[in-house]
Amino acid sequence: MSTFAAAVARGKNGWTASELELTGLADIDEVVDRLRDAEPDAELSLLFVEADDQYLVILRLDEGEDLRVFGSDSAFADESRLGSLLLSDVETPTLELDELSPPPADDDEERPAADPDADPVGDVEILNDLGISSHRLLTLCGLEGMLPSDVTAEICQKLGCGDELEELRDA
Questions:
Q1: What is the DSSP annotation of 68-121?
Q2: What pLDDT, in 10s, does the model give residues 35-74?
Q3: 3-state SS, residue 60
Q4: Nearest to 62, CA basis, from 79, 78, 83, 41
Q5: CB of 63 closer than 8 Å to CB of 9
Q6: Which has the least CB within 10 A, 15, 97, 102, 158?
Q7: What 8-state DSSP symbol labels residue 140?
Q8: Rounded to whole angstroms, how far apart are CA atoms 93 and 105?
Q9: Three-class SS state of 56
């Protein structure tokens, strides 16, 4: 299974991005340690793990503490050791797209239907305070034809670290 893991961190001097190697890790604590090590003094650290153009997992640390996890599809835990490692502590199922109230209508924006087979798990409110609502996150992950890299890019653009992520991908 091919994976790409990008850590983006916001510190006193703005955003930084770095690729993390996640092979050979024994548990989620080792993943968190690698995320902390990427930018030790970060106010906010996010790890985007994309797998096989199919799955996305987002980990969040505020001030190096309080791990929060979101996964675009619970099937990743069943299909991969890394997926199992990242999603093993996710206990609370997320809201289903059809359980969310629709966002206010915006005549300028057409909203494609979400993929009914996706089974997102974890903390859907992981990015709410950063301007990405749980509904938007779930919609991005469920859009047909939307790759995990597309979701990551859109989230990073909204957060203001899109250029750093793009530089990392181009390196």
A1: EEEES-THHHHH-HHHHHHHTT--SBPPPGGGSPPPPP-TT---PPBPTT---E
A2: 999 999 999 999 999 999 999 999 999 998 999 999 999 9
A3: strand
A4: 41
A5: no
A6: 102
A7: H
A8: 27
A9: strand
